[in-house]
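User: My instructor asked us to take a sequence, write out its structure as tokens, and then describe one feature of it. I'm not sure where to start. Here is the sequence I was given:
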Amino acid sequence: MRPRARKDVSLQEVGTEGLLYDREAGMVHILNRTALFAWKQCDGSLTAEEIAAAMRGRFEVDAQVDIARDVLHILAGFADKGLLEGS
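Assistant: Let's start with the prediction itself. The structure tokens for your sequence are:
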């Protein structure tokens, strides 16, 4: 799976957080800094594993943390909310 953000969902960055506006659903979603980073990787070119590797490189993450599981959880949330193409 190579997640791709829907093109009609608008992103506004506010400090280290982000606001996604889904005009179709009339919803606003608030992203913390890790979810924002994951969202910005959802261009259809990276797999979930590659996003996890990029996140590990971007943030100081303890080696014991299963970041791949966390990324899958974030991406599943995006999909559940219909924010990704094909979801």
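For the description part of your assignment, you could build on this observation: The chain has a mean pLDDT of 95. Try explaining in your own words what that tells you about the chain.
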